[in-house]
């Protein structure tokens, strides 16, 4: 019952001619995004990086949000603190939360090189940020006196990686997280490159007793474990032992399956049923997505609405990519053929368990069985994905609904003709078709 917007893409301020004005630009869209049904915005890193026109994934001064003249300018690539706070306030007013992108390891832009006496190597590890907060030297990085091993995870781009076991670093990371939640008003965290550091620090930051509006507050937390299903499973097990199983992971295995669905017309749709995706095994811990800022040349280029339809009707917490919604024009408001229609389907109908009714190389049919309690009434739906490129396709399936009329509520493909209504027989059987290289969603009426 929630939909996230990744509210940026790589070099977005430059490409949209909004350098230093991205927070204001996103704020202009907030009211419409709230009306469309978005629940939260995932924002890029807010801190000053090694250059004021950096995307922020190479942090220099964690506590400079665009108010100190350093690293080539005063504002960050996105704006300053006042503009960020105005965006957060406006998002909250329109019913949306905000997730901060947390880069806790690879730092850049140091002011001096220095020799690490533990290994005699010279590195750029002397940081004197103008905010005056979290100055650091070689002992804040690996190798450090506080750790016997070089580091707990993988290296990234040769940047110096923080040693979180140093009390100075540990304290700074807690203060930074507290600052984002309690002072700026963020509602959760997306942790970048979690391969690069120990899961324990995420668990501890997640379980800190934050206070918002005079009440204890538990943030939403999701990690970027860019790996296969087994590695993600192991990471989720490790990090959730430290919490109340609150931490999610982006579903990279599902995303690569969906790329094949869209970009390989002969892809066997039965691969969607094999359980390799996070959402199939741990739906409560899956953040599903189609593309993001890191995909670059690996972005999906064909029939992308097939992928969006899949994540919007299944379990998991779906993330919509700003570039697709706006720059690629896939929002398609006030039509049944775009992301806006899928958001409506997600909120109003996609409740209860997912049950696969049919799967062959070219046709996938699933039902959400529905869910109802005192605050939620989602009656369920039928979802059809058609891989054939030249014709409508469907087959008779046995649903949970006998003698039930169904109306199409969202569809798209190489033919956008309006699908017909369907009615099941006394045993719940009916045929549900979808357009060529497309999908159709039917809801009980």
Automatic annotation (TrEMBL):
- Residues binding Ca(2+) 1, per UniProt: 105
Cited Pfam families:
Alpha-amylase
Q: Can the keyword Metal-binding be found in this entry's annotation?
A: yes
E.C. number = 3.2.1.1
Q: Which residues form the Glycosyl hydrolase family 13 catalytic domain?
A: 2-346
Annotated region Disordered: where?
Answer: 412-433
Give the family, as the similarity comment puts it. Belongs to the glycosyl hydrolase 13 family.
Classification via PANTHER family: ALPHA-AMYLASE
Protein name, entry field = Alpha-amylase
């Amino acid at each position: 019952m929630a939909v996230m917007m990744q509210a940026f893409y790589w070099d977005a301020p430059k490409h949209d001619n909004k350098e230093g004005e991205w927070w204001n630009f996103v704020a202009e869209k907030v009211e419409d995004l709230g009306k469309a049904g978005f629940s939260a915005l995932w924002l890029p890193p807010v801190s000053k990086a090694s250059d004021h026109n950096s995307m922020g994934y190479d942090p220099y001064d964690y506590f400079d949000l665009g108010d100190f003249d350093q690293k080539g300018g005063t504002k960050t690539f996105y704006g300053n603190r006042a503009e960020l706070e105005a965006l957060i306030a406006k998002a909250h007013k329109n019913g949306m939360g905000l997730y901060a992108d947390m880069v806790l390891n690879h730092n850049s832009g140091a002011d001096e090189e220095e020799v690490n006496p533990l290994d005699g190597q010279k590195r750029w590890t002397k940081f004197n940020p103008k905010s005056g907060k979290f100055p650091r030297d070689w002992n804040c990085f690996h190798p450090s006196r506080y750790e016997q091993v070089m580091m707990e995870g993988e290296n990234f781009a040769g940047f110096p990686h923080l040693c979180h076991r140093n009390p100075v670093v540990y304290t700074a990371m807690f203060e930074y997280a507290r600052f984002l939640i309690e002072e700026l008003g963020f509602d959760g965290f997306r942790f970048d490159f979690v391969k690069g550091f120990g899961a324990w620090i995420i668990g501890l930051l997640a379980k800190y007793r934050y206070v918002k509006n005079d009440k204890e507050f538990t943030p939403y937390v999701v990690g970027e474990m860019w790996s296969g299903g087994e590695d993600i499973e192991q990471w989720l097990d490790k990090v959730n032992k430290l919490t109340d199983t609150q931490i999610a992971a982006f579903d990279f295995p599902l995303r690569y399956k969906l790329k094949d669905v869209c970009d390989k017309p002969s892809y066997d749709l039965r691969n969607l049923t094999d359980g390799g995706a996070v959402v199939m095994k741990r739906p409560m811990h899956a953040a599903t997505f189609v593309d993001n800022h890191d995909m670059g040349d690996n972005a999906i280029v064909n029939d992308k609405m097939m992928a969006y339809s899949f994540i919007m009707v299944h379990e998991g917490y779906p993330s919509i990519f700003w570039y697709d919604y706006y720059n690629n024009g896939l929002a398609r408001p006030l039509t049944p053929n775009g992301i806006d229609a899928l958001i409506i389907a997600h909120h109003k109908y996609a409740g209860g368990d997912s049950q696969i009714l049919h799967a062959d190389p070219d046709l996938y049919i699933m039902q959400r069985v529905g869910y109802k309690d005192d605050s939620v009434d989602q009656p369920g739906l039928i979802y059809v994905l058609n891989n054939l490129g030249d014709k409508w396709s469907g087959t008779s399936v046995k649903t949970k609904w006998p003698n039930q009329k169904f109306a199409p509520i969202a569809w798209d493909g190489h033919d956008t003709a309006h699908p017909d209504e369907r009615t099941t027989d006394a045993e719940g059987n009916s045929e549900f078709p979808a357009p060529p290289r497309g999908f159709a969603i039917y809801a009980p009426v």
